[in-house]
Amino acid sequence: MGDIQDSHIALGVLGVSHKTASVEIRELVSLNEEEQKGIIKKITEDFDVNGIEVQGILILSTCNRTEFYISAEKPDIILPALKQMLATYKKCPYYTDGNITYEKFGSDAVSHFYNVICGIDSQIVGEMQITGQVKDCYNFAHHLDATDAVLNKLYNFGMQVKKKVRNETFLSDGTVSVSFAGVELARKIFGDLADKRILLVGAGKTAELAAVHFLENNVKAINVANRTLSKAEELAKKFGGKAFTLGELNTALEETDIVISATSSDNYVITNSMMKEIIRKKYYESIFLIDLAIPRDIDPKIEDLNNVYLYNLDDLNGIVEQNLEKRRMEIPKASKIVEEYLDEFKSWVSTNSMATIIGKLKSHFEKLHHNEMNRMRKQFPENGYQKELDNYTQNVINKLVRQHMKSLKKNAGDPEKYKQHIDLIYNLYEIDLDK
Amino acid sequence: MKVASQTLSYLLPILYLAVIYIYYIIFTGKKKSWTHKTTLFLGILLIIHGIDIGLRHAVLKSIPLSTIHDALSFLAFSILFVYMIIELRLKIRGSGIFILFFAFILELISSFNLSWEVETNELLTSPTFALHASLSIMGYTAMSLSTLYAIMYIIQNHNLKKRNLGKLFNQLPALSFLEKMSIQSAFIGIILLGIGLLLGHIQAEAIMGEFWPNDMKVIATDIVWALYLTGYIIAQYLRLHGKKMAYLSIAGYFILVVGGFMIVYLTETFHEFN
Fold first, then answer.
1. B29: left (phi > 0), else alpha (psi -120 to 50), else beta?
2. Which residues of chain A make contact with B177, given a CB cutoff of 8 A?
3. Could you give the ipTM of this predicted complex?
4. Is this structure's pTM higher than 0.90?
5. Which among A187, A283, A315 has CB closest to B174?
């Protein structure tokens, strides 16, 4: 029962991502909520390619990717038509450009979805923002009644994949942003940052942005020292701290635990002799200095002082690169989990997907039909209405199957009812699950 | 009962190794899913060690603290116990491998040197002795932990200074935490050992009629304890921080323990373990 041909997974994905398109193109193909709503409505209500309908659709549109997950009996026939429709709808030719879009079908589409949801396919490996975005996109489609049993199961398993990857691998561990790396280091020195005082040396954007991450950690105070006092005051006001001129730097440093320096000065703003004096006055309590300036603001010799920790931009970049490498090394472990769930999904599809059930039901009826027709031919060899009877019974079969299809579709949003219906079909017609 | 006690004593170092292996896996980041299981295994190990102490108590018919090897086993047990409280409170597991390894060494030395002869010395059944011995060992436990945290502080400080930001760096706690734990443990150790020594003197007076018996070990232990206390007070008065404080803690412990062992083995004293 577990093994199933790819073609039996009635799923396809059409996408444009950071791997295939520049940010300019990604902006053009991305869809806002209104547009997504319009497309979902159009596709679920009057989108029919050679009699094949779309059973369900998910649209994932973020800054790094726009993807359409389509549940349909023959997604390979649907996707080209969908591309055309999107190109017309968005008036954007990139949807039909084979170099920019990608298509995946069956188990490839499933593993792609799982790679996306757990961050393997992300631009920054392991970033977890995508999980929330997938959640939103699913809820959006589900709310519009656009998800079927296949998409519901795909999503449910997807959330389990994400959870397992997060619990069992280090794919999302370690900071991958330079300014956050500063916060992480500070935590390794001070532990809790709640009672720590920050001093920004320089009132530019760099220092301000770096300070924001510390602010999120509820630090005690963020003070600012700058050559121009008015600018220092302006920024200090934002953070509710005190302002100092560079002439008052010694005083400011005495009441500081963490220094973030980013001035445009050509000379060292914080010198070795200055720091020797400060650390002595602070009774050798630890002080952490982050030098984000180029050329550097802080004399590197101060690194030799006890309880003084100095990190510059290169050091922080090194930490980020190291963490990214660690995350990349976790990809095989995460991929193994994805494979596990792909097998689970295949197993589920082999017994529960609508296409599988309808296929089994159809072949069951066909077999009955075939046997009865043979019996009739033997009993009434001279009957002249055999062809008409054959067509007639075929129509009855189609109507019966359609009725089941309609009912399954109706219950697709409710996993319990859907399961009950499947059990009913299997029990009523005595269909063998394993065949 | 004797066989059970003996079996368990020999089994304990193996169980210690098994739990150390779990901490090693976490430390090296091989299995993230094991992270939350450490406390459970640590708890099981503690219970088994507790049963071992209980069994020895039943076999010896007195508190199993009469030999230095029993004292080492009790020291390992109390180190584990204190560490488990820290782990439960702070959910930091990175230091576990170091602390457990230290406790394992103590247990290993103890396990293969124990005696199962029934204790006949009536002194050992006295409640004052029990308090004196257990408080002294708890004092040593706290001081051992203080030293282990000081060592970890030095390692973590070195990691930060030299940008060795690998697995060891990630697994070890923050510097401030290590420093705080080292200082607090030292303080607790001084107090507990101080009370333990005082009770020892009270017992000496009751038995020998002398509060300060003229015995090399007792005098030396009192002096070393007083030195440790003085060092601690001076460090607090001078507001010593970081590396200096860590080195001071290690030096103090070295004098206390190594000095203590030397006195036990090199001098003749009434205060024998056996």
1. left
2. 191
3. 0.79
4. no
5. A187
